[in-house]
Design a protein that fits this description.
Blueprint (H helix, E strand, L loop, with lengths): L3 E7 L3 H11 L7 E8 L5 H8 L4 E5 L5 H10 L5 E6 L2 E3 L3 H11 L3 E10 L6 E4 L1 E3 L5 E3 L14 E2 L7 E5 H7 L11 H11 L3 E12 L9 H19 L2 H40 L1 H13 L5 H18 L3
Parallel strand pairs: 1-2, 1-4, 2-3, 6-12
Antiparallel strand pairs: 4-11, 5-12, 6-7, 6-11, 8-9, 10-12
Helix pairs in contact: 1-2, 6-7, 7-8, 7-9
Length: about 325
């Protein structure tokens, strides 16, 4: 059994998958297996992987089942104590796995590790230095778009990792469950992060683990669906996870933030997708409220701690930008 299982979800990733897999086979850490879960690709990328990377285990799904479902199927195929997730548009520095797995080994209270993600095409620009939550309970990629001047070179706790390049302790999934497949894609990792934090797990940001990301490479091929899922899942995430006291206190900020985002989407020609997302979220309110009871009953930390994650994360992001 490999110590770490690396799971990659692929959907028509022919132009990305070679650099992703090649960077994995250059890793200084070697005790890992690679499982590629293919979501019904039709561009020849699956054939390319089988021909050029025969050591990669392939799990073939007949259609696009979404990131959450495909990732869960990949996790179910493994028994490794550590699980790394990668988007197919990620390229890793050679010591990425060594630093990520080493962090989990060295910090038993840490359930997941986040890395420094840089822009694939402009490698002086930060894509994400861990995910944070704002006071409006909105998830943001810390440092996104900033020039990398070492402002995020200190290891620290963050709210969560971007699941496009992250490492998890299997014990986390055994305890709190896998990704919520009802989200399909987008915010499924934020939902998992919130459940992880609520259960008492920490997330460590590991600046020495560096990767390069073509953010949105897959989503750009299906923009309308991406907008709809962002709108819907953001609402479902809040309804499912945020404690009642926090939800009531921060409702004005939440509404103001969401309206601003929905308006921006609409101005870009995605008003129909916004409405579709809102309607689908409304239809799932009873289901999420029922799920909410279970999530809140399993919370092991205080509401004050949950709120401190939002306050600290927002303050930290502003501080790093020099405000």
């Amino acid at each position: 059994m490999a110590e770490t299982s690396v799971i990659i979800v692929n959907l028509n990733g022919m132009e990305h998958i070679e650099s992703c897999l090649a960077s994995l086979f250059r890793q200084t850490y070697s005790d890992f297996e690679i499982i590629l879960v293919d979501n019904g690709s039709t561009d020849g990328s699956l054939y390319y992987v089988r021909r050029n990377f025969p050591k990669v285990k392939v799990l073939l799904l007949e259609k696009n089942t979404g990131f959450a479902y495909a990732t869960n199927r990949g996790i179910a195929q493994t028994s490794s104590p550590y699980i790394a997730l990668l988007n197919n548009d990620i390229e890793l520095e050679a010591n990425w796995l060594q630093h990520m797995v080493g962090t989990l080994k060295g910090h038993p209270q840490t359930g997941a590790a986040a890395c420094k993600m840089l822009n694939f095409f402009d490698r002086d620009i930060i894509d994400a230095a861990g995910d944070v939550l704002t006071r409006a309970v909105s998830a943001e990629a810390r440092g996104h778009g900033e020039k990398d001047s070492g402002q995020y070179d200190v290891a620290d706790y963050v709210f969560g990792p971007c699941a496009g390049a992250a490492a998890y302790r299997r014990e986390v999934f055994d305890q709190i469950g896998l990704f919520d497949e009802r989200f399909f894609a987008f915010y499924e990792d934020i939902d998992l992060d919130f459940r992880m934090q609520s259960s008492g797990w920490k997330v460590m940001y590991v600046p020495a683990a560096v990767c390069f990301h073509k953010r949105g490479a897959t989503a750009q091929t299906m923009q309308r669906m991406a907008v709809k899922l962002h709108v819907r899942n953001n609402i479902l995430f809040v309804l499912k996870n945020v404690p009642s006291r926090t939800l009531i206190r921060r409702l004005p900020s939440i509404l103001k933030s969401r309206l601003r985002v929905w308006s921006a989407y609409s101005r870009k020609g995605h008003a129909v997708a916004v409405l579709q997302g809102l309607m689908e979220a409304l239809m799932r309110v009873p289901e999420m409220l029922s799920e909410r009871k279970t999530v809140q009953s399993q919370r092991k930390v205080t509401v004050e701690y949950i709120e401190s994650l939002m306050d600290f994360s927002a303050a930290q992001a502003l501080s790093a930008k020099g405000h």
